[in-house]
Amino acid sequence: GQALKARYTGTLRDEVSLALLYSAADVFVAPSLQENLPNTVMEAAACGTPSVAFAVGGLPELVEHGRTGYLARPFEPEDLARGISWILEDDERRRELSSAARAAVEGTYAVDKIARRYAELYHGIVCR
Q1: How much is the mean pLDDT over the chain?
Q2: Phi, psi of 72 (to 5 degrees)
Q3: Rounded distance between C-alpha atoms, residue 17 and residue 2, angstroms
Q4: Burial of 98 (0-12, 13-18, 19+ CB in 10 A)
C-alpha cells in the first residue's frame, strides 16, 4: 500500500487553530466504536472536510455515505482504510464531498436553524 502523509500538530485549544487544521485536512477519520453526534465530525464538515467513520451510533446522521464522506462497516478496519483511500484517490470526488459536507452542516445544524427548532420545541411545551 501507499504511505499516507501525516503531521503531528500537538494539542490545539482555540477555535481559529482548530478551524484552520480541519480546513487544511483532506479527510477526517473518526474510528470510534460508539458515538452519539460527535462534534469533531460536525466541525470537520463545517470546515469542508469529509469524514470517514464506522456506521455506528449517530455517525450516519452526520456522514451520508458516498455524498459527504464514507461510512465503513462497523468494526472492519479494512473498510475504514478503503474509505480513506476512496476519498484521497480522486481530487474531484474529494472536492464534491467537501462541498456537500459543508452544505449539509449549514442546512441542518446552522445556529439559526437550531435556535428555531428550540423555540418551536419550547413553544410546543409551554402552549400545551
Answers
A1: 91
A2: -85, 155
A3: 29
A4: buried
pLDDT tens digits for 63-121?
A: 999 999 999 999 999 999 999 999 999 999 999 999 999 999 988 877 677 777 777 77
- Cell 465503513, residue located: 72
Record the cell numbers describing residue 81, joined without a space.
482504510
Query: Cell 485536512 sits at which residue?
Result: 25
The partner residues of 24 in beta bridges, in order of sequence, read none
- Do the bridges between strand 51-54 and strand 69-72 make them parallel or antiparallel, or are there none, so unpaired? parallel
Model pLDDT, residue 55: 97
Kindly list the distances between the CA atom of residue 94 and the CA atoms of 11, 86, 107, 112, in Å, as whole numbers in the listed order. Answer: 26, 9, 20, 28
CB atoms within 10 A of CB 20: 14
